[in-house]
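Supplementary material to the annual report.
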Amino acid sequence: MTNTYLISGAALPDGTRTDIVLRDGVLAELGTGLSAAGAQRIDADGLVALPGLVDLHTHLREPGYEQSETVLTGTQAAAAGGFTAVFAMANTSPVADTAGVVEQELSLGEQAGYATVQPIGAVTVGLAGEQLAELGAMASSRARVRVFSDDGACVWDPVLMRRALEYVKSFDGVIAQHAQEPRLTVGAQMNEGAVSGELGLTGWPAVAEESIIARDVLLAEHVGSSLHICHVSTAGSVDVLRWAKARGIRVTAEVTPHHLLLDEELVRSFDARYKVNPPLRRREDVLALREALADGTIDIVATDHAPHPVENKDCEWDAAANGMVGLESALSVVHASVVQTGQLNWTDVARVLSSEPARIGRITSHGQGLVVGAPGHVTVYDPSASRAFGTADLAGKGVNSPYLGRTLPGRVIATFHSGFATVLDGQLRPADEVAGSAEQRMAARV
Amino acid sequence: MSARVVLQQADIARALTRISHEILESNRGADDLVLLGIPTRGVLLADRIAGIISEITGTPMEAGSLDVTMYRDDLAKHPTRTPAPTRIPASGIDGKTVILVDDVLYSGRTIRAALDAINDIGRPRAVRLAALVDRGHRELPIRPDYVGKNLPSAQTERINVRLAELDGADLVSIDSAAS
Amino acid sequence: MRHLLSTRDLDQESAVRLLDVAEDMADTQQREVKKLPTLRGKTVVNLFFEDSTRTRISFEAASKRLSADVINFSAKGSSVSKGESLKDTAQTLQAMGADAVVIRHPASGAPQTLATSGWIDAGILNAGDGTHEHPTQALLDAFTIRKRVHGIASRGRNLDGLSVTIVGDILHSRVARSNVWLLTTLGATVTLVAPPTLVPVDTRAWPVTISYDLDEALAAGPDVVMMLRIQGERMRDAFFPNSREYSRRWGLDDGRLHRLDPTTIVMHPGPMNRGLEISAAAADSPMSTVREQVTNGVSVRMAALYLLLSGDREN
Ligand SMILES: [Zn+2]
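Predicted assembly:
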């Protein structure tokens, strides 16, 4: 097994053609006409090299929901999608609300080796929204947790939210809010609007998201802390964020790939693959989100990868679980929704899918870009490819993808995590090989 | 597709007149006689026969219609048939002689369905059958009492009955479905 | 007709055809022998995940009068209520050889999911799904209106020129939705009257006029006034203050009844809350079609089952 790779003739995000040498886990050389003894060569002619992608919002399901996903299968999905780091949401069982659970999560990621797993800690004990979790203990654990979220549930109590924002200032943490006013969304099934009225599905009004964001940016301003908004989904939320940023409030925001591409009209099929929280919104919202991502009002794209067992989607709409898998398709969906429209170039893509999510998540080992000396996280992407997205493109356990049967542009050809290949020739490398590389790397670090 | 005309307007008129006379003869007059046409063209033929009989006897006679759609045994083998109304003359059919009138007698299954339909409406003294054309190929033990014309035909052929009220002109032709 | 899931995707021609077939069915229901042999050998399953004795009995009568074998599969107290999924139930019915499934389900869209899932080949007939649609109720309402207006000359006619005012909880009413699509497809003009809390937030795409004022709507002289059942529990969720206020502002009370033109048709899909959305006098007046609606329900459901189960099912 080699640990030197020569990626030849790739285009950097800015369009510069270059060779890239990865050696001993780092990006060792950049330039044209490079050669490296014993290196495995990847012909990247016509391909784009991106810094390894970072997902700030992944549900890995382990521990507790291993029938949906495990750290291994979830990071395999990540690698297949070109990701080298994922932030694991806290809504596992047990909930990631103690140092023990986040350290376990971290270790599982290290063993699997497909991507860096950075645990997110719960804001409140058991995500119950009543009592602060041991934020400090998680922060000073081996997992060095900096992002805290009750995602899946909103930190609804304004006092609790205020305290959380204040408390994490002591270690430069950030609260990632799942903005959903619970009383306004009791039994909600889809976006509230013209389509919900016709279909007779209980509505999830935009105001339930916007009112929480408005409250929380004001709270963040008041206590001088930083706030991150998960999966922004409405045009109104964009307006609130734009206002807050103009005011100098330390708020960042993410949008999911599916909210950039899909809209509520799809719900007319009652196909539960389109059931997600926050729900698919109107076309106007989709367009506003694209614009906000282009102008920086929304900082990053995060997948909200949410695998579910087949039976949780193969049922009537009301009974179906919320969520879509998204890691494997994210780059193609971003490509289709904002690159092909001319709103983002590949430098922007590198920003919204790598450097900014790493910065917001306070990790330094990722998101440094393709510079000599940076850790060897590289994604090689073929932007000219086009494929009918199918279950063969899914590498995790979940098949609840809304894109099955759709034609998506692009394809991840190779992914390198810390200088080791996790994907080559568009194929996931075997688990034992990747775990072996990871073990070598861990041993070298000691 | 080639079409061969087998009955012209005058032939049809003559056949219906003959059938009307035969009905009156075998029934010994028009008393207690109920004509029921089977939709669609059987109803038109029954109306015409009723008109001829009215002229002969000098007393007005009305024909009814009997829809058999809901009594068919080939529900799933054909495109959905839309039922037509059933109209039974006010005096009903109990104790009467019912003359079923259809345009083409073929397998006999329509008549089987008609007999079932009659059964659910009342109990006639007798049921007779009049058909403008008998093309053979019976699949059930059913035979007509009054026939306009016997037309031995191949099963691949189509008997096309056109009547002025619906189709603009009276005409019976055999269409041989070539390929 | 492969399935009957909603009235929204019925065009005028197929709607009129269904009503005409229902006329033929109604004719047979005047006879001494009401039973037709049409669906002999066919199995119709009444799959009810919600209690509704009235609707189930109506479908059962319709199936039996067409000589189908009827299996009643009620979710209450069966494996279904113990967590068996819709999919498992559907596959069971498939294995039993169901030709048609009449489904009532609390989840909007469940019949469509059943029809498009591939779990079962049977024709699916929506007998009410969540707050989405209740197509046979709308069809029997249209049938009843047409019969009242056109009598024996009903066949082949639409509802051109008629105005229908539907009053009550539009937000949660599948009857209202199905009627909005069907009655307007048939040419009627529809006005919805409700407290603003009980109207969906965005109805710009609905082919209707919306009013919050019942007296104003009634003063316009509609041909038909359809009162919807109001559920008591809506009070808890603050949709309106209390039943007294609801009744005073949106109920068809005796005063409003007497101000109506005596030719106005008063309808209610049942079951009625007498004294709440409709007064006893209104429910029992000659203007009321409440009992006709029940009778016509059987004919309309016979027509729907016939159209569902006849024709080439392969296509
Ligand atoms: Zn969330």
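The longest strand of chain C covers residues 123-129.
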